[in-house]
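Incident review: delayed structure delivery

Summary: a single-chain prediction request sat in the queue longer than the usual turnaround. Root cause was a stuck worker, restarted by the on-call engineer. No data loss occurred. The affected request and its eventual output are reproduced below so the record is complete for anyone auditing the incident later.

Affected input:
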Amino acid sequence: MTWDQSIHEFLLYMQGNGRKLSTMQRYRYDLVLFSLWIENSEDALQRPFKRNITTDRFKQYLKAAKTTRNCSPTSLKRISGVIVNFLDYHSVFLESVDRGKQELLQLHNFASDTEIEQLLQTLNNLEGLTPYQLAGRRHIINRNLLIAHLMIYYGFSIHDLTNLTMQDVNFGQGVLFPTAAGGIKRAIPLNATDQKLLLATYKDIPESVRPRQNTLDPLFVTFHHATNTFQWDYSTDSPKNLTKIAIQRMLQKEIKRANIHHLSPTTLRNRHILDSLRNGSSIAEIKVMLGMKSIEAMHRYIIFWRSSPLAENYQKIWRAHK
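Output delivered after worker restart:
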């Protein structure tokens, strides 16, 4: 990939994030000047993009820009931000550069191997359930396990889960199409095990209240333990959607039953992001797969990954495998 191609790809990404044309032109101007300085050649844009740029080299460029172009502190801050985001996009992460105020992540912000294993074991067994809970467990054991799998292995957020409709499900190909907060759909292929779990979850719902394929009916349906049935929403003439609060309560109960103290949807998602980085996924790939609004959201994960050696209880990579 040449410098010109790398800049063009980054600008397309920024355009997709809603940047104005005038802003894009400014970004290109800043990045072209950076490439010319790095290569020290007029044909820099046609040369291969360098991924071995160091923090020292970057700081030397800012110093040169201040001296030769008489850039103001405000301009230097803008130029710095553009270059850092450009390099981050291409997985060239510079250490010790200003990325604004961000709360640094610590080990307890990530779910441990033991916590994840205990949660999955608990979801798969009936120990500690009351007779009242046991009565309906066979109807929702697959559903609850699928929800956990989507969070652990695929990085789904609760927002993703509650907004899945039957239009977002392709049983034939085994693909889900969750919609991010910004309204952009993404394709998430499931492995063979989770494809079977998805179908089992669907078939656990009686036909009379089962979500209709290729409609806006929700994939995950509320289960009423008192009547031992899945619920129908007569106001929408469709199965009743499982709410965010219901998913949170379900997870809280299972976490308590597993005797885990610090596990949460946030620590599960954090762990998925960390494992994606460890598994070789680029920042841009993770941003797309998880429906993040910007690559800036990845900065603190990379800082943790680069600066914090992982403890023994964080060695496994929790990612879906074909």
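Verification: The chain has a mean pLDDT of 90.
Action items: add queue-age alerting; document worker restart procedure.
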